């Protein structure tokens, strides 16, 4: 019919609807719902399944693989569908052991578990080979389902323990108190563990050890019996037996450390009495002269100890240990001999070693006994400085401190030599160590600082603003430490630097002064001085007339020239004239004109100069004549004269003390500003 699309399904267009047999098995169709198709077109319907071959096969063994014993291998394939398409192959290495196809009723729709079993006898050569279980599902038209799965298991072949062997050293027949070592070995795979046991009277086994070697010490008769060694691994065990026979040993007594012992006073000494061949001995201790033991006795089993702590002079005896075993009695003795030599000698120096200065060395040995066996020797290198043997009263029992002194004059050649103090205790009949002790001290001879010198660059006399380097050198051993100081006005030294070179940058006049360099080491010190002079160009020059630059004839006038606080400055006063300058005889820069005349009028000039430079100042003095050229002495002039008679000395004093004061500061005036022609 026009305008309509009709879709019909014939017998060839079949839609399969399959319901899952379980949750693990599921069938899906595509498309999932109704599909509308135009007549004449092609329609594709897809049916797929999941879970019909869900996991790899599983290989199960009936037990561990033991070489020579049959074993059953099962290859298990779980939850498979359709099982009529299933094939299982079981392989060992590259060899196919068994293959099976499962032809079942194809109409059964269910998940099945299928298996394949093979029994074989493993051999050693199978170690390292693999069992492969391969399952194939022949459904070529279903691409989404894995068609082949496999499981792999590596073979581990075991060998039950066998050929168990026991070796015994020294023998299976022993004496009481002896020792025996038994070693067991067993073959198998994996290597068997070794277990030692002893058979009891009731037939049971008493476990002893899990080591291959069993060592029994201090054997007793009851240690006789049958000893069993078992080799055990995962799949079996194998045993071997050996019989030990412990024979009775004769009863003996030993005392240690020996028949004589040398004991150091103050130490602890343990005397041990041991019994062999007696199970339950009894002990007693005494001194040979039956004096008090002054020690602690402890007996346990076949041993008894006498502990003397600390050892003193009262313990110097022979001690006897008596052992009773049944009706038998044995006695052993030990002699305790005393000495004291506890530490190395001490070397004491009488001070620092300074070249060419005598020094006394003392070698001291403390807490020594016996004194009559002591010898002390003092050596410098291979040269013996002093040797002494101390012969004292042999009956005197006391600890003494002994020493040996020697005086020598060290030289620089002694540096590196060894000063050795040897102390020897000559007691050959007593066994102890050490019988000789020594102390060694390496000599280091010092040399006091000397030849100290100062290098000044560029000069010790500088212009203000210049820089100067002052380097100090001093010789000695060890190398002297350098210390720079500045000398204060009161003579004390003010430390300023520990560097060898002292650098002053942009110097000022107050940097002038005496600088001291000291070379210092533990042997002494050496000093050197340098005076630094900072020169300054004259400045702040002043030229004045008192009371004024304009005076009347007959007045007293003081022409005074002063300059700043600059040392080594010359002041020259002149009176200028066309016919030539006249140098005035000034005192400290001051020139006095008594009763000024008209001829005293004119230009006065002051020149202040030193080695660095100079400055000039000038003034004009005006002298006015009196009216009618008569002597005139007014009350005002009288007062001025009286005042000037006081002022002039005062001004002189002020100028003098001012200049003296300037000499005390960091800018030292050198009797400054004296008039020099």
Tell me the layout of helices and strands:
Blueprint: E1 26-30, E2 46-50, E3 58-61, E4 65-66, E5 71-80, E6 86-92, E7 95-101, E8 112-120, E9 130-137, E10 148-154, E11 157-169, E12 173-175, E13 180-189, E14 193-199, E15 205-209, E16 213-216, E17 225-233, E18 236-247, E19 252-256, E20 260-264, E21 269-276, E22 282-287, E23 296-300, E24 303-308, E25 318-325, E26 328-339, E27 346-349, E28 359-368, E29 374-380, E30 383-390, E31 400-408, E32 418-425, E33 436-442, E34 447-457, E35 461-463, E36 468-477, E37 481-487, E38 493-497, E39 501-504, E40 513-521, E41 524-535, E42 542-546, E43 550-552, E44 557-562, E45 570-575, E46 582-584, E47 590-593, E48 602-609, E49 614-624, H1 635-662
Parallel strand pairs: 4-11, 12-18, 20-26, 35-41, 43-49
Antiparallel strand pairs: 1-2, 3-5, 5-8, 6-7, 6-9, 9-10, 11-13, 13-16, 14-15, 14-17, 17-18, 19-21, 21-24, 22-25, 23-24, 25-26, 27-28, 28-31, 29-30, 29-32, 32-33, 34-36, 36-39, 37-38, 37-40, 40-41, 42-44, 44-47, 45-46, 45-48, 48-49
How does this model look, in words?
With 677 residues, this protein is mostly beta strands. It folds into six domains: 58-158, Immunoglobulins (Immunoglobulin-like, Sandwich); 160-247, Immunoglobulin-like, CATH 2.60.40; 252-339, Immunoglobulins (Immunoglobulin-like, Sandwich), CATH 2.60.40.10; 346-442, Immunoglobulins (Immunoglobulin-like, Sandwich); 447-535, Sandwich (Immunoglobulin-like); 542-662, Immunoglobulins (Immunoglobulin-like). The strands form 13 sheets. The protein has a five-stranded mixed β-sheet, with no helix packed on it. The chain has a five-stranded mixed β-sheet with strand order 35-41-40-37-38, with no helix packed on it. It has a five-stranded mixed β-sheet with strand order 43-49-48-45-46, with no helix packed on it. Strand 17 (225-233) and strand 18 (236-247) form a beta hairpin. The termini are far apart. 22% of the residues are buried.
């Amino acid at each position: 019919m026009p305008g309509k699309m009709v879709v019909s399904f014939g017998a060839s267009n079949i839609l399969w609807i399959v319901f899952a047999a379980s949750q693990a098995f599921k069938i899906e169709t595509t498309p999932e719902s109704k599909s509308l198709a135009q007549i004449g077109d092609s329609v594709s319907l897809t049916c797929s399944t999941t879970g019909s071959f869900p996991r790899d096969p599983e290989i199960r063994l009936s037990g561990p693989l033991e070489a020579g014993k049959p074993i059953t291998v099962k290859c298990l394939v779980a939850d498979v569908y359709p099982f009529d398409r299933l094939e299982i192959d079981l392989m060992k290495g590259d060899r196919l052991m068994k293959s099976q196809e499962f032809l079942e009723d194809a109409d059964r729709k269910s998940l099945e578990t299928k298996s394949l079993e093979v029994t074989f006898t493993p051999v050693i050569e199978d170690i390292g080979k693999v069992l492969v279980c391969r399952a194939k599902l022949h459904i070529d038209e279903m691409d989404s389902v894995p068609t082949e799965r496999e499981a792999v298991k590596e073979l581990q072949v075991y060998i039950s323990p066998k050929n168990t062997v026991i070796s015994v050293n020294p023998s299976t027949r022993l004496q009481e108190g002896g020792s025996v070592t038994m070693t067991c070995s067993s073959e198998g795979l994996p290597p068997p563990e070794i277990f030692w046991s002893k058979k009891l009277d009731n037939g049971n086994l008493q476990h002893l050890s899990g080591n291959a070697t069993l060592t029994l010490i201090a054997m007793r008769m009851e240690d006789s019996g049958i000893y069993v060694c078992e080799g055990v691994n995962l799949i079996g065990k194998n045993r071997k037996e050996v019989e030990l026979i412990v024979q009775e040993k004769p009863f003996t007594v030993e005392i240690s450390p020996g028949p004589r012992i040398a004991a150091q006073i103050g130490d602890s000494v343990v005397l041990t009495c041991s019994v062999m061949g007696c199970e339950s001995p009894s002990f007693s201790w005494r001194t040979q002269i039956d004096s008090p033991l002054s020690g602690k006795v402890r007996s346990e089993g076949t041993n008894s100890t006498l502990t003397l702590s600390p050892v003193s002079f009262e313990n110097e005896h022979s001690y006897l240990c008596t052992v009773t075993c049944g009706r038998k009695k044995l006695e052993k003795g030990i002699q305790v001999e005393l000495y004291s030599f506890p530490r190395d000698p001490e070397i004491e120096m009488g001070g620092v070693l300074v070249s060419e200065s005598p020094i006394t060395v003392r070698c001291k040995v403390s807490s020594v006994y016996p004194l009559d066996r002591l010898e002390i020797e003092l050596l410098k290198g291979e040269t013996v400085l002093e040797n002494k043997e101390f012969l004292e009263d042999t009956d005197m029992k006391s600890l003494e401190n002994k020493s040996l002194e020697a005086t020598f004059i060290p030289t620089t050649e002694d540096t590196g030599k060894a000063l050795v103090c040897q102390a020897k205790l000559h007691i050959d009949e007593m066994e102890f160590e050490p019988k000789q002790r020594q102390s060694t001290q390496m000599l280091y001879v010092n040399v006091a600082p000397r030849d100290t010198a100062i290098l000044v660059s560029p000069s010790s006399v500088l212009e203000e603003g210049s820089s100067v380097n002052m380097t100090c050198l001093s010789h000695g051993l060890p190398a002297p430490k350098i210390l720079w100081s500045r000398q204060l006005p009161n003579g004390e030294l003010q430390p300023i630097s520990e560097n060898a070179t002292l650098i002053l940058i942009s110097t000022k006049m107050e940097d002038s002064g005496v600088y001291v360099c000291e070379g210092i080491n533990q042997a002494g010190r050496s000093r050197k001085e340098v005076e630094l002079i900072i020169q300054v160009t004259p400045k702040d020059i002043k030229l004045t007339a008192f009371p004024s630059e304009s005076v009347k004839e007959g007045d007293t006038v003081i022409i005074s020239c002063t300059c700043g606080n600059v040392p080594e400055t010359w002041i020259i006063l002149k009176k200028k004239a066309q016919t030539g300058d006249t140098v005035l005889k000034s005192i400290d820069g001051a020139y006095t004109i008594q009763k000024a005349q008209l001829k005293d009028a004119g230009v006065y000039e002051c020149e202040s100069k030193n080695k660095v430079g100079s400055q000039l100042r000038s003034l004009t003095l005006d002298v006015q004549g009196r009216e009618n050229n008569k002597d005139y002495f007014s009350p005002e002039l009288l007062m001025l004269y009286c005042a000037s008679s006081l002022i002039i000395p005062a001004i002189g004093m002020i100028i003098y003390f001012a200049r003296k004061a300037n000499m005390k500061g960091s800018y030292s005036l050198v009797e400054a500003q004296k008039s020099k022609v």
